[in-house]
Amino acid sequence: MRTLGKAKKGISPVIATIILIAITIVIAIAVAAWVFGLFKSYSGNANGVTILSGVSSCYSSSSNPTGLNTPACIIVLSNQGSNSVSVIGASVNGQQVSVTGSALTVTANGRLT
User: Cα–Cα distance between 74 and 102 in angstroms, integer?
Assistant: First the structure.
């Protein structure tokens, strides 16, 4: 009869338990940080610019309050982020539209009409 080889040893159950607890703690910290917003500055929308009202007012060429002889629509923007942002362009339904002013800036936690 042949002698069977030594059985391969695995890791100790104590070591396996310690590794599982460590992994669980790391996952719990990551979830807590995400829930409480600790990674907010690393997210894709850190600036937080949102449109408060889509098209609140539209004017024809003759009734435009800006004094320009062109049709216009007013859009209200809000910056909920911590940095100022500049509005350099806009598009409606994929068509580029002009923005009044060369560089409109929405300050941190501010509004631009």
Answer: 16
For residue 107, the 8-state DSSP code is -
Average pLDDT score over residue span 25-36: 87
Q: Is the dihedral of CA 35, 38, 44, 48 positive or negative?
A: positive
Residue 7, in any domain of the structure: no
Residue numbers of the domain that contains 108: 49-112
User: What pLDDT is recorded for position 28?
Assistant: 94
Q: Is the residue at 102 inside a domain?
A: yes
Question: Which two structure tokens, joined as six digits, stand for 64?
Answer: 């435009």
The pLDDT of residue 35: 80
Q: Considering its fold, how many domains does the chain have in total?
A: 2
Mean confidence (pLDDT) of the chain: 68
Sign of the torsion angle spanned by Cα atoms 12, 13, 14, 20: positive
